[in-house]
Amino acid sequence: MAKPNYSGVYHMVSQDKFDEYLAALDVNYALRKVVCLLKPSKHIEHDVNTGKMKIKTVTTFKNFDMDFTLGQEFTEDLGAVDGRKCQTTVDWEGDKLICVQRGEKQGRGWTHWLEGNILHLELRAQGVTAKQVFKKAE
């Protein structure tokens, strides 16, 4: 079965437990409150033939870029959230994208999956799971 193509622009429609997730990352209270008010968009370029991906999270506060090849470990700059770096690998698990981040926070990572024009993002750190839902722009 062919893997889904994640390319597109997605706008956030909801989030759940994001403040708790940021607290698990030791993000200070004031910054957490600002970040939780943001409604990010995700701009994704996905080359299904090479596995190269670019995910740009765009907000009015700060943007965050990830540029990687599926299955290959890379150093991720987490500066958009907490100014740290970690070793990251993103790869397929079925038709979901699974990210494992190795660094100072145990169990940190995320999962992306598509259901039609809806992009789901589940974020994990220190036993806390948050969820964001995005809708693809037409």
From TrEMBL:
Pfam families: Lipocalin. It comes from the Eukaryota. InterPro entries: Calycin (IPR012674), Fatty_acid-bd (IPR000463), ILBP (IPR031259), Lipocln_cytosolic_FA-bd_dom (IPR000566). GO terms for molecular function: lipid binding. Residues 7-126 form the Lipocalin/cytosolic fatty-acid binding domain. Belongs to the calycin superfamily. Fatty-acid binding protein (FABP) family. This is Lipocalin/cytosolic fatty-acid binding domain-containing protein. It comes from Danionella cerebrum.
